[in-house]
Design brief:
With about 350 residues, this protein is an alpha/beta fold. The chain contains 13 helices and 15 strands. The chain has one domain: TIM Barrel. Strands 3-4-9-10-11-12-14-15 form an 8-stranded parallel β-barrel, surrounded by 4 helices. A hairpin with a 2-residue loop joins strand 1 and strand 2. The radius of gyration is 19 Å and the shape is globular. The two termini are about 25 Å apart. The mean pLDDT is about 95. Its cofactor is FMN. It is an enzyme of class 1 (oxidoreductase).
Length: about 350
Amino acid sequence: MSFYKTIIRPIFFQFDPEKVHYFTFDMIKILSKIPGVSALTRSIYKVDDVKLHKELFGITFENPVGLAAGFDKNAVLFNELADYGFGFIEIGTVTPKGQEGNPKKRLFRLKDDQGIINRMGFNNNGVEAAIENLKKNKGKVIVGGNIGKNTNIATEQYTQDYCDVFKALHPYVDYFVLNVSCPNVSSHAKLGDKDYLLELIAAVQKLNNAENEQRPILLKIAPDLNNQQLDEIVELVAETKIDGVIASNTSVNREGLKATDKRLTEIGNGGLSGLPIKDRSTATIKYLADTSNKSFPIIGVGGIHSAQDALDKIAAGADLVQVYTGFIYEGPGLVKKINKAILKTL
């Protein structure tokens, strides 16, 4: 057992998850300002090996292990988090205007399941605030921009919202993710419609093509899609030539949880992440990879709590992997363990 799991996590888990999140951010910020701490952190957690380098959609990743969107929503900590050995960090979800998100409490631990349920609702400070933070990029890590729409807008404005964020963020991120699968924002049904996705992707690609330097664009999908819906995703990628897919977002499925019905009723709606969605996410990756004959890149995320979990995603067809809930439950050593395990397979 690591120091994190025996000492730090039990203390953190006594308190409200959202408050702990911001407390942790403050602590990392403060510590990283002490001379030598960043270098020490890198020496503990970073695995430097050219064999881990991964070339994908025109980007060279130092290693295939990233931090998923939702952790550093406003791009306030990506420079410091880079010291923990990540090959890439995805900021966001970023919307055009800042918004509070859903009412609190909105983040819940399922300790027995090693999962989290959240209904944050795209709380973020808006694209301009994210840009101000991204201007301080020290170039230590690849940064992805996960983008979405503001919540209370008319249906006909959805595409414009995505386009506004895309255009504004374009000079500051290395790749984009269209978040069309978050279950915690109202009026998202349209975003799962194939015809609408064709419209959205075409609009964003048009903006991308007008730039001197194009950015890769990926689509983030839910783990709850059936095979017919996944077939549509494969067709969509072939039709639009979008650069790849992230599989997967959080789940609304509650099957097989150890948490009691009473506890789940107390929590209410939200997206489930962590160990309970591991197998569903891996199955989604495998289906997409097999059905498409591995014709497009896949980033695998969902329930990675160990090196083996990450290797399973890669074996299923993922080119890169991302952690989030596993990072919270297992601690920062998880990234190093995954990278070392990947090296052993090369």
